[in-house]
Amino acid sequence: MPKYETKLKLGRKHEDVPADVASDNQVSVLFRYDETGADKHVSVSIESDSMGAEDVAALLQFLEQRNLFTRANSKTWVSQPQASEAKFGKTHAWKGADVKDLAHRASTMLPGA
To answer: Under a CB-based contact definition with an 8 Å cutoff, are residues 74 and 7 in contact?
Structure first.
């Protein structure tokens, strides 16, 4: 199995989650060591109440244009936290869009529908 240098995790957030549980817009960047101890792994997390599926697709397209996110070096998947799944049920819907479809388009580099 190939080693992936770039990993993007697409998630979802419910509108009725209280503010003390989920923050407003924020970006976090983690600089981490890889398996050999080299400091080359970077993890970026973006939380925004105003973003939609097309905003996410635009970010992925930007990363692809910079040659950071391509079919050869990247992996996408859909993730829903266990606590969210237990409280709201398993779902891939997000603001009227199918997040699983967005992840599929991203991983195959297909244009937006």
So the answer is: yes
Q: How far apart are CA 79 and CA 99, in angstroms?
A: 9
Q: What is the distance between the alpha carbons of residues 36 and 19, in angstroms, rounded to a whole number?
A: 39
Tell me the one-letter amino acid at 13: K
Contact 47, 39 (CB under 8 A): no
DSSP assignment letter at 39: S
First to last CA, the chain: 30
The alpha-helical segments, DSSP class H, found in the chain are: 53-65, 82-88, 99-108
The pTM assigned to this predicted structure is 0.68
Q: Which tokens is 22 given?
A: 């989920």
Q: What is the pLDDT of residues 8-42, one digit of tens each?
A: 666 666 677 676 665 666 777 888 777 787 887 78
| Torsion on CA atoms 92, 41, 112, 108, rounded to nearest 10 | -90
- Tokens 């998947």 correspond to what residue? 77
**Structure tokens given for 38:** 């080299």
